[in-house]
Amino acid sequence: MCVEGDGCEIEGCSSSDEVRTLSGSMSSALKSSPDLHPCKPGHKFRAALLRCRSPTAAAGILSFGNVLNYMDRYTVAGVLLDIQRHYEVSDSGIGLLQTVFICSFMVAAPIFGYLGDRFNRKVILSCGIFFWSIVTLSSSFIGKEYYWLFVLSRGLVGIGESSYSSISPTIIGDLFTNNSRTMMLSVFYLAIPLGSGLGYILGSSAKVAAGDWHWALRVSPVLGITAGTLILIFVPEPKRGVADQMGRIRTRTSWLCDMKALAKNRSYVFSSLASSAVSFATGAFGMWIPLYLARAQVVQKTGEDCTKEICSSKDSLIFGAITCVTGLLGVVIGAATTRLCRQKTERADPLVCAVSMLGSAIFICLIFVVAKKSIVGAYVCIFIGETLLFLNWAITADILMFVVIPTRRATAVAFQSFTSHLLGDAGSPYLIGLISDALQQSYATSALWRFLSLGYALMLCPFIIVLGGMFFLATALFFLDDREKAEKQLSQMTRPPSTVKA
After folding, report:
1. What are 351-382's pLDDT values in tens digits?
2. Residues 6 or more apart from 454 whose CB is under 8 A from it?
3. Ramachandran category for residue 24: left, alpha or beta (phi over 0 → left; psi -120 to 50 → alpha)
4. 497: which DSSP letter?
């Protein structure tokens, strides 16, 4: 006889089978009780639903949501030429789209971090996905005379997406631990380059298929609503810290105490500054590299300026595909390398990040050297540079999980997101566009000078990446001390669960 948690009997079980309840197992010698009754169809469906809510399935759904999160973000970049031509704005004006998005994203992140440490996380995630999906769909109907409204809509989308990025990693952190957590976070953060690349591909493909770039903004909202529904149904709400210890957390610190502790956590501070450097580079590259390569082909006489209703999408498609592949390689290589290096040194996580950042800066610098002569050579440098840059995404998240106690992880993720966007991609797209415009105004405008001015502006990125590598090296100095402090504090905050004898 097999028993469900609500006390009903499942058909097809013999009387010699073990009796199981939600709290554990009972003796197989127990006899059938007259209080037991066959399970109703609704009970069976509920039981099947509970079995589907496994940690692995939850991590998969959250990763799918993260893919959509970044896919929606970079769909606009996939049709950037069309948007610039439609609204008739300059380089700095078009760069404002990403800047407004990121500014609203980072302002909302601390708020969602506070909520994520205190309230039901999956409800907040689902509401955020529903919100940005509806706003994105609505923005596709904004007329060309209302560019300010289109910019505002991107800001609202940033608020919705901020809830997801701030909270979802903490659920995975509470479902897994040690190497399994590293692997699941690697899968989750693989969604960043994969979703970004698919955003370029989706935007370009939808535009070509429909003959109108507005349709690029009408596909991801449908998928987003689907992801939000799946999260509500299948993703559990684990107790905070349940994967890190066997006891229960007795005390909860105040928000002010959390912020003071994070400010004193040197590994957290330096890794957040390093993340800012990564965000600066990826934000600028994601917005400007396709346009830069399109201008390079005009200089090489292998392409022409966009004068048609629908601009060429070839560069966005290629860059999107490269981003997907390099993201996969970067995250997989990063996780494998870190696991291997942990056998040699306990400081492996920040050291792997530092080496990958410094190597990435070299190849990204080479992009602007070879692009004038060879587009293929530029794509090769982009491929290697992005692979090395993407190595550190999942590892950075794992560093945070090691040095921050579970009850303040959502706050830590949120403020790391806030600082990385504030110092990174909140201003980098607009800053690059502003420098490019200023250089173009200094000399007579030509196809060659428009190409060179944007390249000179983008040369700022490799220097910022080197600075990020230095911050990761600083993280390595304090990593072991901060990890030990977090483990000691967690042991002081917990007690072993009470044991009840039958």
Report:
1. 999 999 999 999 999 998 888 888 889 999 99
2. 91, 288, 291, 292, 295, 432, 436
3. left
4. P
